[in-house]
Amino acid sequence: MVQRATHHWPEYLMEAGELGAFMISAALVTSLLYHPASPLAEVVSHPVIRRLLTGVLMGITAILLVHSPWGRQSGAHMNPAFTLTFLRLGKVAPWDAVFYVLAQFAGAVAGLLVAGLLIGGVLTSPEVNYVATQPGTAGPLAAFAAELAISFVLMLTVLTTSNTVRLARVTPYFVGVLVATYITFEAPLSGMSMNPARTFGPALVGHIWQSLWIYFTAPPIGMLLAAEVYLRVSGRSGVWCAKLLHLPGRRCIFNCAYPMGGSPLD
Q: Is residue 260 part of a domain?
């Protein structure tokens, strides 16, 4: 444990920073499109168009974070469910998984606190509501099923594209498109989380604890089910690495078998 923490702490901090940046972006985008004091909220009043714009901007945020120097080095999980799935696939060492998950939770909280400093009371307004993810009018069971389904599709897509030679470099764009699509169409059911840490940040800062169990269970279950499906089709050798985007020039701390000039395990 001590050895891994000593050598891999930069990746842990990167994971925290990436999810923190994602939370700041979510708070700013939501404020611009939903808070009544925002001129853009007056112009864009249709709920579907608002969700579409929110989805596009958050999808772009996800793409930029995966492509960032930090994302290329840490693997840009930004999600405990991702990390736990790659642990199951044998690509992340147990102690690295522990520190990744802790960093992700810390990053979500820190990002939301920074967002509060940037936009003040706007973050606490009913329209923004700490960018919390909560079940829609269809209820908790529908939210659970929706979170499980979108997490399953996201993970299966990532595993398929990141382990296919012709598609590996465009994996971030698949992720971005799915994020945009989910926010546009699925958000009314569950708020579109797919990420226990992303939901925990608003829950802790805003004391919004309702239905937290959904977002702590459905995303990991969905992604782990996707991993089992992928393993049955491609086998364990079909999983190259735990990075969403693996490019030369960045060290890799995972059990890496990337076939196209990736850096070795550090």
A: no
